[in-house]
Amino acid sequence: MTELSPPPPPFGGRGPMIVSDTVFSTDSVPGRSVMPTKVGNLVVFGAIEAKWLSLGGLGGALGAPVNNETPTFDGVGRYQDFQAGRTISWHPDTGAHLVYGSIGARWREIGRERFGYPINDESGCPDGVGRFNHFRAEQLQGKPEASIYWSPASGAHEVYGAIRDKWARLGWERGSSRYPLEAEHDEPGVGRLQRFQGGYFTWTPAGGAQQHNGAYAPPPRITLRAISDGGRFIEVQGDNFTGRQSAKVAYDLFAGGGPTTHQTGEHTVAVNEVGHIADRIRVNLSGLSGAQVQATDLSSGRAASASL
Q: pTM of this prediction?
C-alpha cells in the first residue's frame, strides 16, 4: 500500500475524499460540499487534501486531481497534480504548498523537488506585479533555500546560492537589480553570472557575490587560425568589442625549439557595428612553432588573449 502524507487534525470526522465515476463523497465540515467530477478513481488525502480544500477543492482554481498522491524522488515527500498544470507538493518538514503557472513549469524543468520543496504557496510580490515561490533542498547538507521569481516582463527564473543571498540583502526584487532575467550560469572569464533587469551579479571563489549596475557586457574573445592564402598568416577573429571603435592587436610569433626566433609587433584594427574584429598577421618566419596574440578594446580597456 502506498504511504500517504499524514492527515491533518480531524475536521468533523472527514476521511479521504474519493472523486470517481460512481462514488462521490461530501466533506463533513458544516456548510461545505463537493460537486462530483468524473476523472476516474482518484484519492485526495491527508495534508495535500487539506491544502486542496483550503483552495476551493473541486470548485476552486485547482479543479480535479489528475493522478493519485505520488512519492517524490527521495521517498520522503509526496506530490499530487491537478488540472491546469497545478501541483501540491508535501514534505514533513515544509508542509503542503502549491506550485503552478510559469513558476511551476520552470520548477519541473529544473528537477521539481530535487531543486527544492516549496515552502510557501505561490505568492504575489509587494509591487503587485511579480510572483514567487521559495524552495528548500531537504536532501542537501544545510538544506539550502532557493527561489523562482516571475514577472510579465522577465519570465520565471531561479535564484540560489551566494547570488540569491546578496540579492536578498539588497532588497530582493524591490532593490535596484529588480527581477532576474536568466538563470545563474558559468561565464568564461567572469565566474558565475546572473543578469537582472537593473544590472547583474557575478560570483567567484575569491570575490564572492558582487552586484553590478547597468547591462552586462560580455568580455572580448578572440580565436586564432593559421592559414595559407597568398602567403602565410595568423587569422584573428574576435567578438564583444565596443562597436564602431578600435582595438589594438599585439602578437608574438615564434619558430624553433632553441634558440627560438620571434616575430613581434602590434597594430590597430577597426571594430564593426556589432563588436566584431577580423585581422590577419603575416608570418615572416621561415617556420612557425606557435603564436600568442592579445587584442585590447581601446574604448573599455578590456583585453582578450589566445595562442596557437
A: 0.76
